[in-house]
Amino acid sequence: MIPDAALMPDRVKVAFTVPTETPVRYPIAVVAASAQAADAQKFAAYLLAPPAQATLRRHGFAIP
């Protein structure tokens, strides 16, 4: 299932899927020159924490 479309099955119709040899990834990185680098680091840490990982799994995202 496509995670983004899975969130709104009543509003999104998947016309087709395209198989890929490698999975699609959603990387995250903290930009060192950011004015909010500390907040970005906290957000990145949150996404890697078990509660956020469980939420991502619940919404169809695979965990690397």
Task: Summarize the structure in short.
The chain is an all-alpha fold.
Give the domain tally: 1
Helix content: 25-40%
Reported for the largest beta sheet, the result is:
none
Radius of gyration: 15 Å
Oligomer: single chain
Please give the count of helices. 3
What is the mean predicted local confidence, pLDDT?
84
Question: Helix and strand string, N-terminal first?
Answer: HHH
Cα shape: elongated
Class by helix and strand content? Answer: mainly alpha
Distance between the termini: 17 Å
Give the percentage of residues in beta strands: under 5%
Q: Count the strands?
A: 0
Question: Could you characterize the architecture of this molecule?
Answer:
This protein is mainly α. It has one domain. It has helices at 3-6, 37-48, 50-58.
Entry keywords:
about 60 residues; about 0% strand; elongated
Present the secondary structure layout.
Blueprint lengths: L2 H4 L30 H12 L1 H9 L6
